Amino acid sequence: MNVKNFLTRNWSHSNDIGLLILRLIFGIILLYGHGAGKLSVIFSGQEIQFMDPIGIGTGLSFHLAGFAEGICAILLIVGLFSRIATIILTINFIVIFVFHAFIVGDGFNILELRFLYLFTFIALSFTGPGRISLDYLWFRKKD
């Protein structure tokens, strides 16, 4: 195989593998780093100490963030209701990014990770989960 053929060939499953890798890596890291801890606090009934970035109360803000970073991360990992999950995650990270960028005034070293999460979820909202997902298995149009 020559270089031109390698670069221009239609790799039929490579896009789906790429989407699977994005979903798994970003979903697992988000769940492990943020969602699991929030879900643990919610289900254990511990006292919630959290910021209130949009003025709806610390408890509701924490529960919404826990749902996004925990439940939606799990949905993203398995590829179920993926577009809904990524839209919720996108909204979550818009709030996080705006809060840290414009209210707290954090620098790039803090904003970088939030920026990567935000635009990965925006991209996955447009692409969908790919064929290696429960969405594809359960909801595809069967001919």
Secondary-structure element series:
HHHHHH
Helix count? 6
Q: For the record, give the distance between the C-alpha atoms at the N and C termini, rounded to a whole number.
A: 35 Å
* Average of the residue pLDDT scores: 91
Spans of 5+ residues with little confidence (pLDDT < 50)? none
How does the overall form come out from the CA principal axes?
globular
Count of individual beta strands: 0
Pairing-aware structural class of the strands and helices?
A: mainly alpha
- Rg calc: 18 Å
Number of domains: 1
Biggest sheet details:
none
In short:
It is built from 6 helices and no strands. It has 143 residues and is an all-alpha fold.
Structural account:
With 143 residues, this protein is mainly α. 75% of the residues lie in helices and 0% in strands. The protein contains six helices and no strands. The longest helix has 31 residues.
Q: Which key phrases capture this entry?
A:
mainly alpha; 143 residues
Write the layout of secondary structure elements.
Blueprint: H1 3-8, H2 14-44, H3 58-78, H4 82-104, H5 108-127, H6 134-139
